[in-house]
Design goal:
Elements: E1 2-6, E2 9-12, E3 17-24, E4 30-36, E5 43-49, E6 54-57, E7 65-70, E8 75-80, E9 89-96, E10 111-112, E11 116-121
Parallel strand pairs: 2-11
Antiparallel strand pairs: 1-3, 3-8, 4-5, 4-9, 5-6, 7-8, 9-10, 9-11
Length: 122
């Protein structure tokens, strides 16, 4: 079982990026994105609850980021618009089978991707 994250890069403030996380070996119902910036703790970004087709966001990205799932490709995407320098971080995707109310906690996820760097210049 593997999660492969991709789509990061260097962009300017105000630009957009789309991250992708492809699962191989099996499917998951629930996905999340976290990010880790230098000198900061890992931060929850967004989660997708497959059984309800519902998305959840941190306050810092709500209204700018959108998490979606492509069932046919067993992939989850994170569309990031209006990027800000403070969005700079390594972004990780994570997955788990059963939804939990504490979906914002990284410790709840059993599978993780390798991370993709997002750098937003001012």
């Amino acid at each position: 079982v593997q999660l492969q994250a991709s789509g990061g890069g260097l962009v300017q403030a105000g630009d957009s990026l789309r991250l992708s996380c492809a699962a191989s070996g099996r499917t998951f119902d629930n996905y999340a994105w976290f990010r880790h910036a230098p000198g900061k703790e890992r931060e929850f970004v967004a989660a997708f609850r497959g059984s309800m087709n519902r998305a959840y966001y941190s306050d810092s990205v709500k209204g700018r980021f959108t998490i979606t799932r492509d069932n046919a490709r067993n992939t989850v995407h994170l569309q990031m618009n209006s990027l800000k320098p403070e969005d700079t971080a390594v972004y990780y995707c994570a997955a788990r089978d059963i939804w939990v109310v504490t979906y914002w906690q990284g410790s709840q996820y059993s599978h993780w991707g390798q991370g993709t760097q997002v750098t937003v210049s001012s």
